[in-house]
């Protein structure tokens, strides 16, 4: 093993799951699933490349528990039915053959369930959303054709309707998560991540901005976190002690007042641990209508933007903390050594170079192709297109594009 990156490349453990190093592929919706939420060959090839590249764990991003109900994206991944199991099983087998573990991020998109909006189904929500005075500046940042592509699906939408969740709806939701987790484990998935951030259904209960209930699920943080804790308990009871389960939480809300604070997130993490969570994966969110939310919140362009919050959350816990957010390998190694976090999730770095972990282990740090933080990848998801990367033409096209090494290398200057 390389003498460098000793902490980042050292084996780790979450609950009973052993991991070959501390680098995880973060959950990223890719729009690479086949029709109907099926994990097909294209999606498998994309994930397998990251397993070959040495990540310890690959996380399937935003996987619907009720597809198409409650799903957010075009070509959303799903584990809501028996028909989804064979594709996930083939993926789990392929990743295991390359020494990686597989986690699945279970998601109900709630207030941002685009497929519900398009089909005219009411959106599940803790309370009727307040119509804010400040709807944000997101649309102002688009070029003309981007605006047209982004808003095209909205033309097909009727009036948006809401379903304030009743006690029976809450029970049904908890059962959906537990059944999806059971299917995932039957398909060979090693760990369950519960998406409890980014404005999706669980996070809309956690946030005081969207949760104005006056029953046991609203008010103080113990109540706002109740749904998450009930889901953790139900999923743990279903999958048993050997399968780690953890939530992905917003560690804070940026660019908006009255949202989730680091103190809230630390309290939620402690409640989640008491409910049986085996780890906490931090993230962040912000004003849903402001463009800068997406470059400050979960897909931040600020290096190490969530590390202070991760460390603050970790200080109150006895379980590992997983942290993303533009963390360079040198920084990740230092943060793990200092006990600020235990595992680092990498997203865009592994879109740009899936073989980053292997190259570090082989002492080839300088051979890693860097992400340039241009947001091409994430804009594809906004435009209902498959993920692609500005610096790696193979990303998302693993089945049809390979770049063979030339026999006659040249230096080429790209001007302009
Ligand atoms: C293309 C793309 C899709 C994403 N989709 C998801 C998702 O489905 N679920 C999620 O929790 N986060 C999602 N994220 C956020 C990432 O998980 C991660 O928090 C973010 O990219 C910051 O980490 P990084 O700097 O290593 O890329 C997405 C990010 C990108 C770039
Ligand atoms: S598209 Fe741009 S931001 Fe996304 S991974 Fe590639 S280089 Fe990084």
Give your account of this protein's structure:
Helix content is 33%, strand content 16%. It has a single domain, classed as Alpha-Beta Barrel (TIM Barrel), CATH 3.20.20. The strands form three sheets. Strands 3-4-6-9-10-11-12-13 form an eight-stranded parallel beta barrel, surrounded by six helices. It has a two-stranded antiparallel sheet with strand order 1-2. The model has no long low-confidence stretch (mean pLDDT 94). β10, α9 (262-275) and β11 form a beta-alpha-beta unit. α1 (41-52) runs parallel beside α2 (85-97), α8 (226-239) runs parallel beside α9 and α9 (262-275) packs across α11. It has 15 helices and 13 strands. Bound molecules: flavin mononucleotide and iron/sulfur cluster. Flavin mononucleotide is lined by residues 26-29, 61-62, 105, 195, 198, 248, 283, 298-299, 324-326, 346-349, 377-378, 381, 387.
